[in-house]
Amino acid sequence: xxxxxxxxxxxxxxxxxxxxxxxxxxxxxxxxxxxxxxxxxxxxxxxxxxxxxxxxxxxxxxxxxxxxxxxxxxxxxxxxxxxxxxxxxxxxxxxxxxxxxxxxxxxxxxxxxxxxxxxxxxxxxxx
Length: 127
Description:
Blueprint: E1 3-4, E2 7-8, H1 15-18, H2 27-37, H3 50-63, H4 67-84, H5 87-93, H6 108-111
């Protein structure tokens, strides 16, 4: 079982797909990593040798920010916006969409489940 950046790569998956299990690496990054390390991205993650794993690990360590470092940077950026008190920071603080999406309807992922308002009754339907 290959372990890169603290993540166990899944068995029986193409290498370019298996690398996407690492936070911060998507499909295009995984393909670039495989090409830079000289490993066929179509090979199964089980068939990769230890030497090739070392090349991939070295490529990721030198050129990519992944897992804990990336999460720390992202949370630091959000904390900076919140501390500044700018519009995006306020939206993060209130747990609302920060990029201009509508919130009258939708936005349920950020806002959470609907909360019932006490004393407000449904209008009777016509028909």
